[in-house]
Write a structure and sequence with these properties.
alpha/beta; Rossmann fold; 42% helix; disordered N terminus
Length: 191
């Protein structure tokens, strides 16, 4: 067994890889899904976000978060909460698609969709040992910080890497968009 598998096995994660679908848990099964790694003494790490149009910046921040502990829980904003936070036209990818992409990443152990605009309720349910958020926030602005620190946990700010952001990707796509190709059926309909 590789050192990584040994570390994960001792942290309560199974040495066999879970399917992506098995990593996506509904809120009602969250406590049960966290019981095994907790019993094994795993350091639970949590991060959250919209993760719309998954890009290298997301991947780097998730890898960073996973390195802070033994078991990474990703709180994923639901479609409704993304619209509430980002406005009309968002998300680009629906919550099932975003959850599937996150769950397919090796660094992610669990994905849970939450429906609130604030992550505070999810932090209360997960009670992570480490809460990771982007360094675009000040520590005092991190929602859930008080909950984690009151239990002796810590908040870590993840460095932003590269120039990627969902907004940047959308703007780039819009700038480089070409008119759709006309099909023979379009030509016949226009005649």
């Amino acid at each position: 067994m590789s050192p990584m598998h040994t570390a994960r096995a001792s942290a309560g994660a199974s040495p066999r890889r879970l399917s992506a679908a098995a990593k996506i848990v509904p809120m009602g099964r969250l406590a049960r899904a966290l019981a095994r790694p907790r019993r094994a003494g795993a350091r639970i790490v949590m991060t959250n976000g919209c993760f719309d149009l998954l890009h290298p910046g997301h991947a780097a921040s998730l890898e960073f978060a996973r390195a802070q502990g033994d078991f990474l829980v990703v709180g994923l904003n639901s479609d409704r909460s993304v619209r509430q936070l980002k406005g009309p036209g968002h998300p680009i990818v629906d919550q099932d698609g975003r959850a599937a992409m996150l769950a397919a990443l090796a660094c992610v152990d669990l994905v849970v969709v939450f429906d609130d605009a604030s992550v505070a309720g999810l932090v209360e349910r997960v009670l992570p040992d480490v809460l990771v958020k982007s360094n675009q926030y000040a520590l005092e602005e991190v929602v859930g910080r008080e909950i984690v620190e009151a239990r002796g946990g810590r908040v870590v700010l993840s460095p932003m890497t590269g120039h990627y952001s969902t907004t940047w990707l959308i703007q780039r796509i819009q700038r480089t968009a070409v008119p759709p190709l006309r099909t023979p059926a379009d030509d016949r309909a226009a005649a």
